[in-house]
Amino acid sequence: MAHFDDFITALKEGAIELAKETFEGFTDKVNADVDLFISKSEEDLKRWTKLLAQGDINEEDFSDLVQAKKAIAEMFALRQAGLSLIKLEKFRKGFINLVVDTAFDVFL
Q: Suppose 57 and one of 11, 25, 61, 93 were both cysteines; which one would form an S-S bond, judging by CB atoms 3.0 to 4.6 Å apart?
């Protein structure tokens, strides 16, 4: 599962960069929210990335599956920090896209 670990590491690093662009910081809150998303989605992400790497699903199928997990990316810690809903939604959309793009980079 070394590839999956690489995927998670790259995803976390990308989320920090996205947070810097979107919020100018809040990395501790981003880490908490990303960890929560990963813990809630880990089994699905493992299964889907394996299918993607094997060619059993295509990029569009993978993207659709991840997009369906958008509701799990609640960004609770960031909401508690009092950030605007517009910025939170921008980050959440960017994060879901980051999940997809990172998987393509690591597994394809």
A: 61
